[in-house]
């Protein structure tokens, strides 16, 4: 059945590992705690997130546990984006908010600031999109970003997403109300693009 996303998620025998030219998407491990803490404690990385930077390594350990539990419940796929050669954790890429009835999900991503501008996040998100559209049979993938985040905006447009609207003052970052820009990508647009 084309729309049975939850059944396809439940049938996964293990956490899906995906390999690209320069990055690998793999399951989160306990030994990723230092890298996850470095990622989510960085104010530059967290600038457009709706939560404050992490303040302790224990928060990273808790996040890794949440990531593993979300997969166990098949509610989200929280990949660690790792360097293909060294295996070092560079960031995260997540598929979440699966909606089986409407065959859609959301994508999110974060990359260590030292690796920005190298196309690694684009490669990681492309791997997740390709896998989810083929394997899960998604019809649509959405992304919701702060419109001031130009790098994220360019990444989504490069991958074929379209901006579908601005939601005014939807989130608070600290005490500041911020807008949210919704992007969408349809399966037929992904299949029809030049790669």
UniProtKB/TrEMBL annotation:
Gene3D superfamilies: 3.40.630.30. It comes from the Bacteria. It holds the Pfam family Acetyltransf_3. Residues 23-185 form the N-acetyltransferase domain. SUPFAM superfamilies: Acyl-CoA N-acyltransferases (Nat). This is GNAT family N-acetyltransferase. It comes from Luteimonas kalidii.
């Amino acid at each position: 059945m084309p729309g049975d996303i939850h059944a396809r998620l439940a049938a996964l025998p293990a956490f899906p590992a995906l390999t690209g030219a320069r990055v690998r998407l793999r399951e989160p491990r306990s030994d990723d705690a230092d890298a996850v803490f470095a990622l989510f404690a960085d104010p530059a990385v967290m600038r457009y997130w709706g939560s404050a930077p992490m303040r302790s390594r224990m928060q990273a350990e808790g996040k890794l546990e949440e990531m593993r539990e979300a997969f166990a419940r098949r509610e989200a796929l929280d990949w660690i984006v790792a360097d293909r050669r060294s295996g070092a954790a560079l960031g995260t890429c997540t598929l979440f908010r699966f909606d089986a009835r409407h065959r859609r999900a959301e994508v999110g991503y974060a990359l260590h600031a030292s690796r920005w501008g190298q196309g690694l996040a684009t490669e990681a998100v492309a791997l997740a999109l390709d896998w989810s559209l083929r394997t899960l049979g998604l019809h649509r993938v959405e992304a919701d970003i702060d419109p001031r985040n130009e790098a994220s905006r360019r990444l989504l447009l490069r991958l074929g997403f379209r901006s579908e609207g601005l939601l005014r003052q939807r989130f608070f970052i600290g005490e500041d109300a911020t807008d949210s820009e919704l992007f969408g990508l349809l399966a037929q647009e992904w299949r029809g693009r030049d790669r």
